[in-house]
Design a protein that fits this description.
Layout lengths: L2 H22 L5 H5 L12 H25 L3 H27 L3 H26 L8 H19 L3
Protein name: Tryptophan-rich sensory protein
Main location: membrane
Subcellular location: Membrane
């Protein structure tokens, strides 16, 4: 993996993590504490463990995918992958703002669904280029699918 690819990918993912993290601080607020949540909600401590691992996966697998596309001379596909990655990171960072800052539970649930689709597409693109080497990225859409179910359930529980 080339540094000239890894550094911008890691930087983009880090910016996304910071932006989302800034909005997630209200997870310790009285508003969040009063929300009804399903019994399968992970403990608060799970999120700062899971997300950094997923962000590292996104940066590393995306960098390797971009390097391989460049090596193969597939520049149009490489540009499309970058666009898909940027769209994914925007969706990723937006969810926390919609849920915690704006308290738009329904919109956040829909955004989580869009993030799941986007993450699955990113994984599909990476696997098409790298095969099994991209498999770790498959955890990302799985976690996003779980987050979609969880967000939707919280929305449902708190709209009655």
């Amino acid at each position: 993996m080339q540094r000239r690819t890894l550094i911008p990918s890691a930087l983009a993912v880090t910016v996304t993590a910071v932006i989302g993290g800034l909005a997630s601080r209200p997870a310790q607020s009285s508003w969040y504490a009063t929300l009804r949540k399903p019994p399968y909600q992970p403990p608060r401590q799970a999120f700062p463990i899971v997300w950094p691992m997923l962000y590292a996966d996104i940066a590393v697998v995306s960098s390797a995918t971009l390097d391989e596309l460049a090596r193969q001379g597939r520049s149009d596909e490489r540009r499309r992958y970058i666009a898909a990655l940027v769209a994914n990171l925007v969706l990723n960072g937006s969810w926390s703002w919609l849920f915690f800052d704006r308290r738009m539970l329904g919109t956040a649930a829909i955004a989580a669904g869009a993030l799941t689709v986007s993450s699955a597409d990113l994984t599909r693109r990476s696997v098409a280029v790298q095969g099994a080497k991209a498999a770790p990225l498959g955890l990302y859409p799985l976690w996003c699918a779980f987050a979609t179910v969880l967000s939707s359930h919280i929305w449902f529980l708190n709209t009655r």
